[in-house]
């Protein structure tokens, strides 16, 4: 299992951005960095076979976890290490740009949880998730 790392072994930009937000740093710059970063989206189930109608359309199934208070979270991660720590039984993941995920965010009822279980966890509600798409540059 690997963690995303930079060539000099430093913490990846997405994780630095999360830490910056968690510690009260420059949120605007950190959110822009985060929005432009690739994330790992856990795969909730094996991919289904295409419908076979000739239309090729890629859809992404979101893993949704409902909390005791009714909040519905979609977890994403900045590294395999953080994903494995939070979801040790995850079957796999897809790598995609956070901005691509946020531009198609389906509902204000869903909350995005970035690096759940880490000290720098960031949760963003629906409208804020869609706003990330515009920050990616």
From TrEMBL:
Pfam families: SseB (PF07179)
Domain SseB protein N-terminal: 16-131
UniProt protein name: SseB protein N-terminal domain-containing protein
């Amino acid at each position: 299992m690997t963690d995303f790392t930079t060539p000099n072994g430093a913490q990846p930009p997405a994780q630095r951005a999360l830490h910056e937000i968690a510690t009260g740093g420059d949120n605007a710059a950190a959110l822009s960095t985060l929005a432009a970063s690739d994330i790992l989206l856990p795969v909730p189930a094996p991919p289904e076979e295409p419908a076979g109608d000739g239309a090729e359309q890629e859809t992404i199934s979101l893993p949704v976890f409902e909390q005791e208070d009714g909040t519905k979270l979609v977890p994403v991660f900045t590294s395999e290490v953080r994903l494995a720590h939070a979801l040790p039984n995850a079957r796999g993941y897809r790598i995609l740009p956070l901005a691509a995920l946020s531009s198609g965010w389906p509902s204000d009822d869903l909350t995005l949880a970035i690096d759940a279980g880490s000290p720098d966890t960031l949760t963003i509600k629906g409208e804020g998730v869609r706003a990330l798409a515009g920050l990616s540059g």
